[in-house]
Each structure stands twice: as C-alpha cells, then as structure tokens.
Write a structure and sequence with these properties.
Low-confidence stretches: none
Structural class: alpha+beta
Strand content: 15-25%
Radius of gyration: 40 Å
Mean pLDDT: 86
Distance between the termini: 96 Å
Helix content: 25-40%
Number of strands: 9
Length: 249
C-alpha cells in the first residue's frame, strides 16, 4: 500500500517502518514549528497578508478616484452642453408694431387701447414662435394661442399696459397647448410653455424670450442660464436668478 512520509513527503509502497528516502520513521509525525522559527513564520505571513491588503486597498482607491474623475469630467461636459442649449433656447426675439403707436395728442383711452393692442401683438408673435418651435420638435404642439399677464403673479396685480406712467411693460406669458377643465367644464388652468416679454410703450417695440426657470421640486437641473437682460428690459445688477431692478425675476 502506498504511503507518504510525514517528514519529506516521499511516496512509496513499503511495509518498513522507516522511509527509504530520508530514513526517518513514518510512524512519527513531523514536529510543528516552535519557538522563534514559528514566530518568524507567523510574523512573516502576517506581514505578507498586510502588504497584499494594502496593495488591494490602493488599487481599489485609485480605481474609485479614476471613476470619480471621469464622472466629474462627464458631468462638466453635460453641464456645458446644457448651458449652450439653454442660451440658444432663451435667445431674445424682437418685434415692433409702430403702426399701433398713438398720436402725440391721443386721449387717455386711446393710449390705453394702443398699449393693449401692443400686448396682443406680442401674444401673436409668441404664438407664431411657439408653433415654429413645435414644428422643429422643441415643443410638443399643437399651440392654440398665447396669453400674457402681469410679470408679478399676484391676485391684485395690474398689467403694466394699464398704468400709463410706466414706459416699460414686463409680462409673464404662456404659449397655451391646452386648457385644464374643472368639474363644471370651465377652464381652471392652462397647460403650456412659459415665455416672458418686455414692451417699450414709447417706441412700440418689444422683446420676447422662452423662459426656462430653475427647477425646484423636480430636482436639480444640470445647468441654469439667467434670462438675457433684453428679455426683461433689465438695467440693474444681476443677482440670483434675475436682476435687482426686476422684482420677481
């Protein structure tokens, strides 16, 4: 029967007590490491294990750092691309309706009517713009109409065209896709796309812009681009998401 020497590991078929290779008794187990030799082996093995662990940790940390760096670079590229997109999306558009400008000696009623007509002209321009954007796939149509109201959405807000002392009118506008109906069938809201407009009541010119306000409950946006000054006829210092001389911006 084959046996293995516990001392040298030699395998042979023999019935003799002693190994024919090393001459030691196969009936006596090889002694375990003891004393300083045992301690040296244990410390050496522990040191090797710690070294291997340290190498593994360094490799893992370097790999994580590389992944994080690549992710930051990708996020920066995405944010820059989004800023470029938003800047183009919100670019100012200009129009004029000088034929609506009232004569110098017009009555108060005539001036108010002319200013209201200028607002309607702006609404028509926004509707045409929104429909063109929908045709290009930027918006989901159809766009039914547009409506402009006071820039500051307050229950008692008065549209700027109704205040003859105001030479500039600022408006919060919506290119309406659909009306939201209530239980009684009446309109309780509007579904559409936000725009803003600034009207010059002296020259009867205007500027309108697509508005992409910062996200709130929907989460953080990749990037934010403040509306161009022309969109709000702003002259003041830029602060936060708007300008110091345009309340609510």
């Amino acid at each position: 029967m084959a046996r293995t020497c516990p001392h040298c590991g030699f395998v042979e078929e023999s019935a003799r007590e002693r190994c024919s290779h090393c001459g030691r008794s196969v009936l006596v187990r090889a002694p375990r490491l003891q004393g300083r030799r045992r301690a040296t082996v244990l410390w050496g093995g522990g040191a090797v294990a710690l070294l291997v662990l340290a190498v593994v940790i360094v490799v893992v940390l370097n790999a994580k750092a590389d992944r994080d760096a690549r992710q930051r670079a990708a996020d920066a590229r995405a944010a820059q691309a989004e800023r470029v997109r938003l800047t183009k999306l919100q670019a100012p558009h200009r129009g004029a309706a000088t034929d609506l400008r009232p004569r110098p000696n017009a009555t108060e009623g005539e001036r108010l009517a002319a200013r209201a007509a200028l607002v309607r002209s702006v609404e028509a321009s926004i509707t045409r713009d929104a429909r063109a954007r929908a045709a290009k796939g930027e918006l989901a149509g159809p766009i039914r109409r547009s409506e402009c109201g006071p820039f500051l959405r307050a229950p008692d807000a008065v549209p700027d065209d109704r205040v003859l002392s105001k030479a500039v009118g600022r408006y919060d506008c919506v290119a309406i896709k659909d009306d939201i109906k209530g239980a009684s069938g009446g309109s309780v809201g509007r579904l559409g796309y936000p725009f803003v407009a600034a009207l010059d009541f002296d020259r009867f010119t205007y500027v309108w812009c697509r508005n992409t306000p910062p996200q709130s409950e929907r989460g953080l946006a990749l990037a934010f681009v403040r509306l161009d000054r022309a969109c709000l006829a702003a002259k003041g210092k830029a602060i936060g998401t708007g300008y110091t001389d345009v309340p609510g911006s």
